[in-house]
Amino acid sequence: MVTAAVTFGVRARSVGQLIPAAAEVIDDLQQQLASLRLRNHELLQRAVDAEQLTSAEGEALRSSEARFRALIEKSNDAISLTSADGITFYRSPAIAKLLGWSAEEMGVRVWADSIFPDDRLRFTREVEGLVRRGERDLALEFRAWHQDGSVRFMEGSATNLLDDPDVGAIVGNFRDVTPRKLAEQALKETRYLLEEAQVTAHVGSWTSGLGERGEITWSAECYRIFGVPLGTAMSVDVFIACVFPADRESVARASQAAVEHDLPYDIEHRLLWPDGQLRWVHERARVERDDTGRPSRMLGTVQDVTERHLAEEEQARLAAIVESSEDAIMSTSLGGVITSWNRGAERLYGYSADEIMGRHARDLVPPGSAEDEQARILASVARGEPVQALETRRCRKDGSLVEVALTVSPMRDRTGTVIGASAIVRDLTARRATEATLLRTEEQFRQAQKMEAVGRLAGGVAHDFNNLLSVILGYAILALEELKQGDELREDLEEIRLAAERATTLTRQLLAFSRQQILQPRVVDLNQIILGMKSMLSRLIGEDVELSTSTIPDLGRVLADPGQIEQVVMNLAVNARDAMPDGGKLTIEVTNVRFDAAHASSALGTVHGDYVMLAVSDTGSGMDAKTRARIFDPFFTTKEQGKGTGLGLATVLGVVQQSGGNISVYSELGAGTTFKVYLPRTDRAIAAALASEPPTTLRGTETILLVEDEEQVRVVASAILRRNGYNVLEASNGEEALLLLKDLSIKIELLLTDVVMPRMGGRKLTEHVAPLRPQLRLLFASGYTDDAIVRHGVLDAGVAFLQKPFTPHALLSKVREVLDAPPAVAGVDGPSG
Questions:
Q1: Which of 184, 372, 672, 783 could be a cystine partner for 619, CB 3.0 to 4.6 Å?
Q2: Does residue 696 form part of some domain?
Q3: What's the CATH code of the domain at 783?
Q4: Could you say which DSSP state residue 303 is in?
Q5: Looking at the structure, do residues 626 and 482 belong to the same domain, yes or no?
């Protein structure tokens, strides 16, 4: 047993080796106990037999008995003989030795007194039960008091030999198993501590046999880590089922490499729990080999590292956010030394991380303010106070300055102590540009609101004003036709006519800049328009201004009203002439341009695509920024009073925008001015002009149904038509006209109708008439710009239209043009608006 204890002490060098070492000690003790029991029993049997022999033989036996008694008394096992009434009449000296008493001291003590009080009653009852039940053997375990006051663990057996006449006693055989018990307790405690350590560290241990049986054993923590119910029979299949499918091949390869090539089994992989949870584990193992070098088993550990993986993933995600941030993100020590630097910082400052790490943050602050500003920031951080959105300037690597918004926050360790600062630096360049754009947009919006307000005013009065002007012009011209040359009233009537025509022009300008005029667009080539106007422009600008035009053969086509485009060129040319009172050069050029997405946003209201540019440049006095900001305002002019209405450029802008384009201006004082008009290109072909001869006469004999709700306009129009031979029927609204048109006995060649009338307008009237008189010619007249026949101020093709106010000549020319045109062009069965 001593040898076994020593062996135990040598073998139990670590907690991991304690369990197998203790098991070996227990096996040694049990083998020695069995041997002693057999030996004692043989000695007792021989002693009994000796008394039955003859004296000579008895002497020999007594001599032998003495030898055996000596052996018994020198045995480390305690042997006792107890009578049926419980009196112990023999105790071997080993009892005294086991309990630390002398033989004399032990002789006066009662054996039962040495048994530990808590075990004494149980011991007595078990022995009495042995006698009462007549059983042969009884295994006993109990504790006994040692002379030094310690408690000793005893183990042995009681053999019932009361019915044996040669013995007549209960033979007790006991030994001190305290070392073993203490080892078992230590082993139990070690196992408990090991299990607790595994639970705390979330580490399980396992073994896997590599022989024929291939048994797998798991610690309790392994079951918890793998999500398998405790006690489940383990096998390779169960283990593989726990591994995430995508990781099974890599686990198998690592295991095979460890077994076949003695490589370390050290791998991280995923587990798939039965409830669908995904966990991460880290496994380590080594291969044990037998005496022949063949692998016998693997011993390993498994640790749940899910939380670490999640933390690493979160850290990686945060690092990715920091690295991908457009803002510069950096950190410094409390002393201001730069300790981290993201890619946004590299882009903003121009320094790589290798170049800037370890340098002081003051190196990024403009000279002169570095010490003061940086000191304030660091002092604030040291107090644990953040610096919020400080707008300042910083230096780039190339020495240039950049406006930034700086937010600095204290960095703390786990104890809450401030250990440094983290800073987010945002480049304000884009924001400043956006703010400037917003200011321009806001100004443009206010400008648009003003234009809209004036436009609403112009559109609101246009109808009534145009009707009045039609009456004034009509009667003035009719009266002039009746007067002879030299009549004193003729001069007065001419002034009336001129004033009415100027009022007509003013009204049209108001409608033009507010984009409410009527356009009749077609596909045109600006080359032809510029070349066709060259002679007229030369006369307009005078001899002291040099005119230069530039065209290109492959110029794109645009969809626009040719007359209005000519008006745009005229107005820009007149403005350029006025800016060069002492002469200069006027250049008009056209070319193709393309706006991509980036440049389109910078142009006024243009979207990316293909455009035709019309540029009008002069070498005149130019404009300052304040004047440039207002040149398109209605009624704004830099000319002397009485020399300009302030509607020229406003009209230009209205025409261009109504045609789907836009305009920009570049000008500096003393450096001249350039206006650039951008009109969208079209792929449509230029339509061939209709071959129509101007009417040889304005007179006619056809019957015209005149529908007009304004009586004065109706009367003057009727008078003009009748004086020129036409038969005129009148109606004050659509319903009256429809009654006349339904009477097919009345021959009517032309329906001349106002568009906007009470009860039934002109468009509704023509819809009712179309089935009744399919060959009836139509001519619409209106002073409104938002009529049903007009879409966004653009007249549909095939619709004959007379804009109010009109002169007698304009009325008679348009009537004759419509009557002489084929029905498909001017009639109801032609294209509808």
A1: 672
A2: no
A3: 3.40.50.2300
A4: E
A5: no
One domain for residues 456 and 534: no
Q: What are phi and psi of 492, to 5 degrees?
A: -65, -40
DSSP state of 166: T
Beta strands across the sheet bearing 169-176: 88-91, 78-82, 169-176, 151-161, 137-145
The domain in which residue 120 lies consists of 2-184
pTM strictly above 0.90: no
Q: pLDDT-derived band of residue 25, with 50, 70 and 90 as boundaries?
A: very low
Q: What whole-number distance in Å separates Cα of residue 355 and Cα of residue 357? A: 6
3-class DSSP state of 410: strand
Burial 202-225 (b: 16+ CB within 10 A, else e): bbbbbebebeeeeebebbebbbbb
- 68 CB-near residues (< 8 Å, 6+ apart): 43, 46, 47
Phi first, then psi: give them for residue 566, nearest 5 degrees: -60, -40
Q: Which residues contact 321 (CB under 8 A, 6 or more apart)?
A: none
Please measure the distance between the N-terminal and C-terminal CA atoms of the chain and give it in whole angstroms. 121
Specify whether 248 is located in the same domain as 387: no
User: CA-CA distance, 547 to 586, in Å (whole number)?
Assistant: 5
Residues in the chain: 833
Phi first, then psi, for residue 730 (nearest 5°) are -115, 145
The residue type found at 637 is T
Q: Which two tokens stand for residue 562?
A: 């040719």
What pLDDT digit, counting tens, does each position of 636-683 carry? 665 555 455 556 677 777 778 877 888 888 888 878 888 888 988 888
**Listed residues 426, 452, 487: the one ending a domain:** 426
If asked whether residues 348 and 416 sit together in one domain, one would say: yes
Query: Residue 2: its pLDDT value, please?
Result: 31
Residue 392 lies in a domain: yes
Local confidence band at 204 (pLDDT 50, 70, 90 cut-offs): confident
Percent of the chain with pLDDT over 90: 5
Three-state SS at 603: coil
pLDDT in tens, 733-760: 888 889 988 888 899 999 999 888 888 8
Location of structure tokens 């509808």: 832
- Look up tokens 């002397």; give the residue: 640
809 with 755, same domain: the answer is yes
Per-residue pLDDT of 108-146, as tens digits, reads 566 667 888 888 888 888 887 777 777 788 888 888 888
Q: Which of 483, 511, 539 is the last residue of a domain?
A: 511
| Whether 506 and 540 share a structural domain | no
Angle between helices 55-74 and 15-50 (to 10 degrees): 160
Vertex 262, ends 257 and 268: CA angle to 5°? 50
Looking at the structure, do residues 555 and 629 belong to the same domain, yes or no?
yes
Nearest 5°: CA angle at 641, between 640 and 644?
80
Mean pLDDT, rounded, for 786-797: 49
Residue scoring higher pLDDT (47 or 584): 584
In 273-400, DSSP assigns E strands to: 278-289, 295-304, 328-333, 338-341, 387-395
Whether residue 520 lies inside any domain: the answer is: no
pLDDT tens, 55-113?
555 566 566 666 666 666 667 788 878 777 767 777 777 777 788 877 677 665 666 67
Burial of 260 from C-beta contacts in 10 A (0-12 / 13-18 / 19+): exposed
Q: Give pLDDT tens digits for 475-485.
A: 877 777 777 77
Q: Would 519 be classed as within a structural domain?
A: no
CATH number of the domain encompassing residue 341: 3.30.450.20
What is the spatial distance between Cα 476 and Cα 150, in angstroms, rounded to a whole number? 145
Of 191, 238, 229, 235, nearest in space to 209 by CA: 235
User: Can you tell me the distance from the alpha carbon of 21 to that of 8, in angstroms, rounded to the nearest whole number?
Assistant: 6
Please indicate, yes or no, whether residues 210 and 283 belong to a single structural domain of this protein.
yes
Which tokens sit at 394?
């910083």
Q: Tell me, what CATH number does 580's domain have? A: 3.30.565.10
Sign of CA dihedral 260, 264, 269, 275: positive
Q: State the total domains in the chain.
A: 6
What is the distance between the alpha carbons of residues 570 and 564, in angstroms, rounded to a whole number? 10
